[in-house]
């Protein structure tokens, strides 16, 4: 493999671990738990894994444990740090017993079903330590939901003498990990299942999980790029940059990048929904900021747009929900469109044809509209331009508007993990090994107290059922881990709302620069502003 100078230096980085995970640990069980909502339904669906306690690890002294073979699966979109979860898991099971083996299932959950795997040896693992990407074994979005798939998993686990599976994924994949754990307990086949919280979107978090891995690095990469664009905007003084940021439904990435860079406008989808803002109102609010700056001779600026915005605009939300249901029973778009209500049909027909078409593209395997493929930034540029022309005609706008659209998403998903993600992910992996050794199943690997230095992090596990509620998916009510959207009463949103009128008017840009891997801790080990604001407020 050809390597850059940074890759070579970075390979030698030894991720920091919580003190407790530096040796053997034993599980201390807390009180019985219940799901965040819909307790009766979830209990009925998960009779074996419901109500289990939260687990905290404590030092165990010397222990003599048998070898254990483990299978690992990467599921869903890439997120920086996945390779470190795997290297932590590898080092963890080898520390437990040097004869343990790690198998990687190839191409995501389908590798388990189709029996495609590789044994991950020390040579392979060493090539991938502290690197971005999921290319060590590949990822995929196959949904594990059918008993035939689960049974096929049992076959290969028996063949390879696999004691446990570790599924590294987002809310949907971890939900499926729990369904699998429940099924394997019912079948008494002795295969444990552990999840790890992955997603750049930052929406897999709750009272227990402080952050999903990858969010830190992805936001830092996007913030660097936004800062560079801001400096260009402030130098050239002739463009308005509309930057759409990945993150699916949640606006955590847009919010974090706003806190890091201070844009002139940052739209938060959750606020749009709470205030029931129409598309026209969003456009008008941006146009007002453009006009306000133009009045002071500033015909430039930066607008951040969360990827999922379109789903939160009330009229669009109804339209998308109707399309989701209609397209779950037919793939014939023309046929599906006939089923729209009169109001949704009118909204659909009012959209530029390219955007309308993007709304009907294939859903992902979980039934979600693929928001990354909808060009909201272009839609907003076009509509703001039209609005400004009308304002000009009324004498309310004097200036020039030249909009440029960008979409940042894939640029950050495979970046080399920041120190935070490198340490957090490696810890999640080692921790998963100890959950397995302690006989746990249906748990997610849990590392807490993450704004403190790594040696003070708290390690343990949280039962997946504790994070579940019932939601409509592909037209049916299903148990799923509750997604965390931006909390409009939370400290990160408050930090934006307290400052945004100044950021709109003045030019307060901050230029974060590239992620630093070597150097002073106050530059290299900083967690996200979101994490600090949220956790500091909890204390
Ligand atoms: P996960 O939810 O699987 O972590 O994926 C995150 C994400 O990057 C979203 O931000 C984005 O909408 C989606 O994946 C894009 O999916 P794809 O990889 O299929 O293009």
TrEMBL record:
Substrate binds at residues 199-201, 238-239, 246-248, 307, 410-413. One of its GO terms (molecular function) is ATP binding. Its main location: cytoplasm. Non-allosteric. GO terms for cellular component: cytosol. The record marks 172 as: Important for catalytic activity and substrate specificity. Its EC number is 2.7.1.90. The keyword Nuclease does not apply. It catalyses: beta-D-fructose 6-phosphate + diphosphate = beta-D-fructose 1,6-bisphosphate + phosphate + H(+). Keywords: Cytoplasm, Glycolysis, Kinase, Magnesium, Metal-binding, Transferase. Gene3D superfamilies: 3.40.50.450, Phosphofructokinase domain (3.40.50.460), Phosphofructokinase, domain 3 (1.10.10.480). One of its GO terms (biological process) is fructose 6-phosphate metabolic process. It is found in: Cytoplasm. NCBIfam families: PFKA_PPi (TIGR02477), PRK07085.1 (NF005482). Catalyzes the phosphorylation of D-fructose 6-phosphate, the first committing step of glycolysis. Uses inorganic phosphate (PPi) as phosphoryl donor instead of ATP like common ATP-dependent phosphofructokinases (ATP-PFKs), which renders the reaction reversible, and can thus function both in glycolysis and gluconeogenesis. Consistently, PPi-PFK can replace the enzymes of both the forward (ATP-PFK) and reverse (fructose-bisphosphatase (FBPase)) reactions. Homodimer. Belongs to the phosphofructokinase type A (PFKA) family. PPi-dependent PFK group II subfamily. Clade 'Long' sub-subfamily. This is Pyrophosphate--fructose 6-phosphate 1-phosphotransferase. It comes from Candidatus Enterocola intestinipullorum. The gene is pfp.
